[in-house]
Design a protein that fits this description.
Layout: H1 3-16, H2 19-28, H3 39-46, H4 54-66, H5 68-72, H6 78-94
Length: about 100
């Protein structure tokens, strides 16, 4: 992913309180060759809270559901699929 996308993910993680899942995912893929995070971004992600709150995850899901019609205008289904995959990945990491 580009640095811009990583920053967007960081903003979403902070805004919706899902940083614990994002941090866990980054930890699981830390050795992945394609995971190229700048030291600044690594520091930002490490500063995210480590407490998992299911209510925050539900709030992110509601946001995505409410705005899916707006997302559809940018792509027939790719952004919605990406958001759905992101939530699926977050839930899989937790399990």
């Amino acid at each position: 992913m580009s640095e811009w996308k990583w920053r967007q993910l960081y903003q979403l993680a902070r805004q919706y309180g899902v940083g614990a899942w994002v941090k866990e995912g980054l930890r699981c893929y830390a050795d992945d060759f394609f995971l190229q995070l700048s030291p600044e971004l690594q520091r930002l992600f490490q500063e995210l809270p480590t407490e998992k709150d299911e209510e925050c995850l539900t709030r992110l899901q509601l946001y995505i559901d409410r705005h899916s019609s707006r997302l559809a205008r940018y792509s027939s289904r790719s952004l919605r699929a990406y958001a759905s995959d992101l939530l699926g990945t977050i839930r899989n990491i937790e399990e």
